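Re: [ENG-882] Designed sequences occasionally contain unexpected residues at chain ends

Forwarding the minimal case from QA. Structure tokens:
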């Protein structure tokens, strides 16, 4: 399998996979000052049929273009790179909520709900199809992004096993938590990502989560097993150091998310369901 690191970041995220259909062109640009509507944006109510067969990358762009139009900035590097390449995008640090309509929220929620409902079985079949294509040398930047997203959803690294650790995140390859994390490994993560990663340390030791969100997230992975005898004594000094580092980064970017914030219908690249 070809190593993912051979594709330059500057070339990423432009074309869509050949087998995916482009979203319909909206009829009217809803943002004042724009002379055209951004790709992946819909100014009508979406239906499940609009989402059927979409890749995780496409679904993510369809969700996040709503917030990008409002000036939201993104910690996830691939999203940041994609939107900064768009002539209409103007990062404002904090999104302008007045530019996010009720229809936008409804569409974002529908996309996120559809995404969350994709079962591990469906995602595994997709991953196998991508791996087969990549093994044949049929590698595109979009496929690489998709494999990163699939790795994160399934909780295991699906890419080239010989790829350097710098090419993957601990969310994509939890085995990286067997080593001391660095701050550089966390700089590409949203607050949502950081919350999941911090709790992943406990999940790997068998902690049973009270949070529905976290319980469902880890249940979708291959490795998570609840240990009825779990205590914090099962955590190693390395585990605690990694938790401390992750928490320090969370504090730098606005503080750790609560379960309510994780679900709350607000804009921002840290939102569980809607953005990033």
């Amino acid at each position: 399998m070809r190593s993912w690191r051979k594709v330059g970041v500057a070339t990423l995220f432009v074309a869509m996979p050949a087998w995916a259909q482009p979203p319909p062109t909206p009829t009217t640009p809803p943002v004042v000052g724009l002379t055209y509507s951004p790709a992946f944006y819909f100014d009508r109510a979406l239906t499940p049929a609009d989402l059927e067969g979409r890749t995780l990358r496409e679904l993510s762009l369809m969700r996040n273009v709503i917030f990008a139009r409002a000036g939201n900035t993104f910690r996830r590097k691939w999203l940041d790179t994609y939107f900064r390449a768009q002539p209409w995008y103007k990062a404002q640090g904090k999104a302008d909520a007045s530019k996010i309509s009720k229809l936008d929220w409804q569409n974002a929620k529908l996309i996120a709900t559809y995404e969350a409902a994709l079962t591990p079985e469906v995602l595994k079949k997709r991953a196998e199809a991508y791996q087969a294509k990549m093994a044949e040398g049929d590698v595109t930047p979009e496929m690489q992004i998709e494999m990163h997203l699939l790795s994160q959803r399934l909780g295991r690294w699906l890419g080239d096993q010989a790829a350097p650790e710098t090419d993957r995140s601990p969310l994509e390859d939890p085995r990286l938590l067997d080593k001391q994390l660095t701050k550089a490994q966390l700089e590409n993560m949203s607050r949502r990502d950081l919350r999941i990663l911090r709790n992943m340390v406990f999940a790997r030791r068998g902690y049973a989560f009270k949070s529905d969100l976290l319980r469902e997230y880890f249940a979708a992975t291959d490795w998570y097993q609840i240990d009825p005898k779990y205590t914090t004594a099962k955590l190693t000094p390395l585990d605690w150091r990694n938790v401390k580092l992750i928490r320090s980064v969370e504090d730098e970017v606005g503080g750790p998310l609560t379960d309510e914030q994780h679900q709350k219908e607000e804009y921002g690249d840290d939102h569980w369901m809607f953005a990033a």
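QA comment: On inspection the terminal residues look reasonable. Confidence is low (pLDDT under 50) at residues 1-36, 262-273. Proposing we downgrade this to a documentation issue.
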